[in-house]
């Protein structure tokens, strides 16, 4: 049984049907559900992975894209260390709605929350309605990490989640993310005394490996 | 040469006897056969020469004795010689005798020695065997002790050492010793095993006691916001599992420490938020009850997920080994896990309850309360699904949901009863009064919120029925009362308009569809009434209403006995009739018929169909009048002078202008 050092909290947002739950399942269980029902409210998945030599547990909250759950899902932004925004490269409208999602996310998350943009359904690139360049420009304008991925083939899925985790980890090391914050979306697994030390001198935290 | 020799003393007879006797013959033969060159003969002759000097008679005579004498001498000499030998031989014999004596003695001693040695050997052998057995026993005993007793170092560790991995291993071993001893005890070695069992039990007791104290300390130190329990604590718990009383206490301690920590974090999230204000405290949204309660329950849901993960990792680690017969065990482990989880989440129950109830009770908006109820229902499913049955948090949320439902129904009933008791006056437009529209708007919000809820489709109708009954029925009642307060013509149209508005609302949602048929019936009735009133009013405007009345009463009397002619009835004289009819024709021909009431129906399709129905109604009445006047029994001499237009004409004129 692996002992992890941190827990990072993620939230996945985006329009209905862009494949949020499938991305999550591809990442946590390495499988693609052919017949994924609409998410009711909110679902939850975890995976332990290694980032920069540290064992980290990702706790991922997958929200329902349906409008009727918006009021509920909004409450889950609170204290997320990573927000993963998903659109469907074959559905123009899902890309057009990103600005709303981004505003929503910015309004409800911490300033240090790492934002990632995923253009899903790369396996259906033939029916593409949103070009890579356009989305890339959008991501650059808004300071988002950007990748196109496919929940079906698994392409780039791992990379997307891990890249976010690496960025969060860098934020911890640079001190941008305050580990003492009870709701920073990152939970350290050390004892309190160690953690205060780590918080004060983040560089120590990296050298002191457990 | 002489053949006489000592060997042949009879040789003389051979010479003497003329006739060869057999003896002589034998002698002769012997002489003849004597071999002269034989060494014995030569040796004998040589010897003879020594003492036989001259060949004299005497000598010849004495030869024999001489030889014999000599023989005796020789024998004497021989005997003499041999006397020494004899003596020596006697000596030798003596020696030999002694030797044999000696050897016999030795043999005897040897024999004795042999016997003794054999015994010794036998003894040795026996001893050796014993030694082997003893050795084997020793090994057995050592192995036994190794297996059934702790080494001094282990004992030391168990009694005074730090709780550590080796400590737990030793403790596990003590348990193993105990169980193995008990198994053996059934078969043999009662005393020794009893001692061992006793010793192991007391050691185990001490060990468990120390482990328990240590765990208590560690578990109370498990930080609230830490996400995992140290591996050693997990292992310790697993070991302690076999001492179920202590184990349970530890689990309770764990639940208590996690519960307190959770409560602390919850209160902090509610009132302080993160450091530097991010994220903001949940209470900052207290003015927005949906957001406030939503954030609160979302926080609880997320905390619950984390606690569950933590406990799951703890319980997977402490789950009994798969080697143990464990179907039952894993079930009990699951129950234990659920129990602890429920216990931990207990920490937020009262806070949630107090705050949610306060919010609910301070609300005056039924819609908002309904929405809050829906939100609570969502979390009742979401959170309740993660907790075991009967968890206090689940019942808390359930209680809050029930309270919301109760308060909602109270507010709904109160507001609709208020409308029912003081029906709002009907506006001149005959459109539903604003109060009615506001009530409907509220219901609409309630329904749309309900539509978004997690209630499965098949349950929705029944679930929502009370809302329709408490919300819609009094509303219909209120509209009917308002309608009764004014003229039937206006009232029925007003009622239709109100019912149509209600129908529009109910039609939006499947779970209200059951009420539609009855509503349509009610609408149809009111509409019919309205149309009838409209027809009547138009007829009255042309002063035809009393004429119609007279026609109808004349027609019913005509079947009886009276037999008064229609033209003879009051107001039915040809002049009066033609004045009224002229007025009627004027209105119809100029298409200036006023559908003043039905025109105030709110739905255009209903409006136009109502107009045609009014037209049809007027046509029908005219036809009735026409038929009566033109009939011979009516008593009019020139009915065609009065009736300028036939019913078909009127109908097409009316229909054309609808």
UniProtKB/TrEMBL annotation, chain A:
The answer, when asked if Nucleotide-binding is one of the entry's keywords, is yes
Signal peptide span: none
Q: Which SUPFAM superfamilies match?
A: P-loop containing nucleoside triphosphate hydrolases
User: Which Gene3D superfamilies did the record assign?
Assistant: P-loop containing nucleotide triphosphate hydrolases
Where does the record say this protein resides? Membrane; Plastid, Chloroplast
**What does the UniProt keyword field contain?**
Membrane, Nucleotide-binding
Entry superkingdom: Eukaryota
Q: Main site of residence?
A: membrane
Cross-referenced SMART domains: RAB, RAN, RAS, RHO
Cellular component (GO) terms are: chloroplast; membrane
Q: Give the GO molecular function terms.
A: GTP binding; GTPase activity
Which PROSITE patterns does the UniProt record give? RAB (PS51419), RAS (PS51421), RHO (PS51420)
For this protein, the record's NCBIfam families field holds:
small_GTP
Family membership noted in the UniProt record:
Belongs to the small GTPase superfamily. Rab family.
Q: What is this protein called?
A: Ras-related protein Rab-14
Q: Which organism is it from?
A: Guillardia theta (strain CCMP2712) (Cryptophyte)
From TrEMBL, chain B:
One GO cellular component term noted in the UniProt record for this chain:
Golgi transport complex
What Pfam families has UniProt attached to this entry?
Answer: COG6_C, COG6_N
Q: Where in the cell is it found?
A: Golgi apparatus membrane
Q: Which InterPro entries does the UniProt entry name for this protein?
A: COG6, COG6_C, COG6_N
Look up the domain of life of the source.
Eukaryota
- Bilayer topology term: Peripheral membrane protein
Provide the GO biological process annotations.
intra-Golgi vesicle-mediated transport; protein transport
For whether the record's keyword set contains Protein transport, the answer is yes
Conserved Oligomeric Golgi complex subunit 6 C-terminal domain: residues covered: 191-654
Q: List keywords of the entry alphabetically.
A: Golgi apparatus, Membrane, Protein transport, Transport
All residue ranges annotated as the Conserved oligomeric complex COG6 N-terminal domain in the record: 48-160
Q: What is its main location?
A: Golgi
The subunit structure is: Component of the conserved oligomeric Golgi complex.
Protein family (similarity comment): Belongs to the COG6 family.
Job of this protein: Required for normal Golgi function.
Can you name this protein?
Conserved oligomeric Golgi complex subunit 6
């Amino acid at each position: 049984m692996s002992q992890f050092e941190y827990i990072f909290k993620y939230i996945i947002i985006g329009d209905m049907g862009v494949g949020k739950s499938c991305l999550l399942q591809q990442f946590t269980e390495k499988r693609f559900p052919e017949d994924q029902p609409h998410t009711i409210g909110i679902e939850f998945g975890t995976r332990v992975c290694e980032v920069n030599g540290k064992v980290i547990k990702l706790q991922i909250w997958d929200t329902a894209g349906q409008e009727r759950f918006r009021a509920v899902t909004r409450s889950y932004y609170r204290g997320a260390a990573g927000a993963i925004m998903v659109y469907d490269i074959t559905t123009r409208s899902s890309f057009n709605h990103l600005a709303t999602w981004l505003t929503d996310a910015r309004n409800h998350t911490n300033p240090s929350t790492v934002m990632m943009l995923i253009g899903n359904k790369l396996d259906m690139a033939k029916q593409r309605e949103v070009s890579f360049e356009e989305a890339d420009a959008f991501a650059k304008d808004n300071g988002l990490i950007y990748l196109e991925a496919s929940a079906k083939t698994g392409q780039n899925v791992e990379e997307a989640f891990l890249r976010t985790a690496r960025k969060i980890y860098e934020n911890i090391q640079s001190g941008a993310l305050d580990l003492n914050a009870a709701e920073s979306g990152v939970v350290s697994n050390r004892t309190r005394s160690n953690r205060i030390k780590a918080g004060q001198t983040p560089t120590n935290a990296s050298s002191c490996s457990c | 040469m002489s053949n006489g020799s000592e060997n042949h003393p009879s040789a003389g007879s051979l010479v003497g006897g003329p006739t060869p006797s057999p003896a002589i013959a034998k002698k002769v033969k012997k002489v003849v056969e004597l071999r002269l060159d034989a060494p014995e003969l030569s040796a004998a002759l040589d010897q003879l020469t020594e003492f036989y000097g001259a060949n004299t008679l005497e000598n010849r005579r004495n030869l024999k004795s001489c030889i014999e004498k000599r023989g005796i001498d020789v024998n004497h000499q021989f005997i003499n010689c041999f006397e020494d030998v004899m003596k020596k031989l006697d000596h030798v014999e003596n020696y030999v005798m002694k030797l044999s004596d000696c050897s016999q003695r030795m043999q005897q001693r040897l024999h004795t020695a042999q016997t003794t040695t054999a015994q010794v050997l036998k003894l040795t052998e026996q001893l050796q065997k014993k030694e082997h057995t003893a050795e084997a026993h020793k090994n057995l005993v050592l192995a036994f002790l190794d297996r059934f007793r702790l080494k001094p170092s282990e004992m030391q560790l168990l009694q005074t050492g730090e709780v550590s991995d080796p400590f737990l291993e030793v403790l596990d071993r003590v348990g193993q010793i105990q169980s193995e001893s008990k198994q053996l005890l059934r078969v043999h070695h009662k005393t020794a095993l009893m001692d061992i069992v006793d010793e192991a039990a007391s050691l185990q007791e001490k060990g468990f006691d120390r482990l328990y104290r240590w765990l208590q300390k560690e578990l109370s130190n498990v930080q609230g916001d830490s996400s995992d329990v140290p591996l050693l604590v997990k292992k310790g718990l697993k070991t302690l599992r076999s001492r179920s009383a202590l184990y349970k206490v530890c689990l309770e301690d764990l639940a208590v420490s996690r519960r307190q920590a959770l409560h602390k974090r919850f209160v902090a999230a509610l009132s302080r938020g993160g450091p530097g204000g991010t994220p903001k405290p949940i209470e900052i949204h207290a003015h927005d009850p949906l957001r406030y309660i939503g954030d609160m329950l979302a926080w609880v849901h997320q905390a619950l997920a984390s606690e569950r993960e933590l406990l799951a990792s703890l319980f997977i680690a402490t789950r009994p080994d798969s080697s143990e017969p464990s179907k039952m065990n894993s079930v009990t482990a699951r129950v234990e896990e659920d129990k602890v989880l429920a216990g931990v989440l207990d920490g937020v129950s009262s806070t949630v309850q107090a705050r949610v109830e306060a919010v609910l009770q301070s609300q005056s908006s039924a819609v908002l309360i309904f929405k809050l109820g829906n939100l609570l229902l969502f979390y009742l499913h979401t959170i309740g699904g993660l907790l075991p049955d009967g968890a206090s948090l689940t019942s808390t949320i359930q209680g809050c949901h029930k309270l919301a439902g109760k308060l909602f129904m109270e507010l709904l009933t109160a507001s609709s009863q208020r409308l029912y008791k003081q029906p709002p006056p009907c506006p001149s437009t005959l459109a539903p009064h604003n109060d009615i529209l506001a009530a409907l708007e509220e219901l609409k919000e309630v329904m749309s919120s309900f539509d978004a809820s997690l209630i499965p489709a098949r349950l929705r109708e029944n679930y929502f029925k009370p809302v329709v009954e408490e919300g819609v029925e009094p509303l219909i009642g209120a509209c009917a009362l308002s309608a009764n307060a004014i003229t039937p013509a206006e009232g029925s149209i007003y009622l239709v308009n109100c019912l149509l508005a209600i129908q529009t609302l109910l039609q939006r949602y499947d779970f209200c569809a059951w009420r539609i048929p009855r509503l349509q019936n009610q609408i149809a009735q009111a509409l019919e009434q309205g149309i009838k009133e409209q027809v009547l009013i138009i007829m009255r405007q042309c002063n035809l209403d009393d004429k119609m009345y007279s026609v109808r009463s004349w027609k019913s009397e005509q079947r009886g006995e009276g037999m008064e002619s229609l033209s003879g009835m009051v107001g039915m004289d040809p002049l009066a009739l033609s004045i009224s009819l002229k007025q009627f024709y004027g209105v119809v021909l100029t298409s200036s018929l006023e559908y003043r009431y039905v025109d105030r129906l709110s739905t255009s399709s209903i409006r136009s169909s109502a107009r045609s129905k009014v037209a049809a109604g007027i046509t029908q009445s005219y036809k009735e009048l026409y038929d009566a006047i033109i009939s011979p029994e009516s008593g009019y001499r020139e009915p065609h002078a009065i009736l300028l237009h036939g019913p078909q004409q009127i109908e097409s004129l009316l229909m054309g202008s609808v």
